[in-house]
Amino acid sequence: MQKGENAVSVALAALVLLVFIAVHRRWQPVDLNEMASSAEEFILTTTGLRGQVPEIAGYEKVKTYRLGRYRAGLYRASPAPLIFAPGRFVVYDPDGKPAFKLETLEGSKDPWTTVYDFAGRHGLTPASSRARPNYISDLTGEGEPEMIIGQYSGGDHCCTIATILELGKDSVRVVGRIGNLAGLPFEGLELQKIDKDPAWELIAHRPYRTACGTPDDAADVPSIYGYIGGQYADATAQHAEFLRELLRKDLQKWSEEKNRSLRLLQTIAAGYAELGQRDEGKRVFAMNFPALLPALQRRGIDPNACLDDAEGLLDRLASVVP
Q1: Rounded distance, CA 123 to CA 137, Å?
Q2: First CA to last CA across the chain, in angstroms?
Q3: Tens digit of pLDDT for each residue in 284-303?
Q4: Measured between alpha carbons, how far is 322 from 320 in angstroms, rounded to an integer?
């Protein structure tokens, strides 16, 4: 009987303590490290549950992710304002301790931060898909899994940052960050194996807008990130042949009249400039520009301003690849 009474007393004491902590934290902000550590301590010592994503006072848990041995949680401040709210993305190690943290911005209704689904379509899980998402993959070829986090800023036609994390056996480390990606995650990011290297290349498609039109008319200028010296870094200059193949395909599209658009013409001109052929890019743009004049004039675009700004873009892009 004595043992039963002791057990009840311990349980009641624990409950009172938790209520006190909850009330105290509601009125006093707590550092994320302290908060996560306290949550982890409660999980391990009180319930014995491991591998769970803890709650954070003042935040609602928007989504959780299974990452092999790791877990992650996306949190949003609660209650959220009408449009957006501060958020946090936390990766927890197998013992429930924070191994990586990001401060984010989240929409009040839909999250703006997400994790790349390698089993999905362009990094996103189709709404109708019944397949289990796969959020980790060995991108570097070194035997450890990586994940990609996409953070959207909420801006019009801009901007997303992609953070590549290596989930090692004993630690989590950032192996790359790619910024200024247009649109939501992961509209401007493409994964390809370009050469015989075991690592995947990450291709960032960034729109370069000119006075020639709207963001939808902007040139698509790719940058290629390769895994070099333990980090993903801009390796565009090392992949001239890949860029030439992209340009060849765009020229093939332009040869069919139905495909001709201001966006495609600016992309072709930028492709020449990125390969160090600025003058050829200007020539091709000027030669084909008259075919687009009627459409530009209907939209009230000044042809001279368009030409000048387009040439300025090619000057900025010139000689990226020697």
Answers
A1: 12
A2: 84
A3: 999 999 999 999 999 999 99
A4: 6
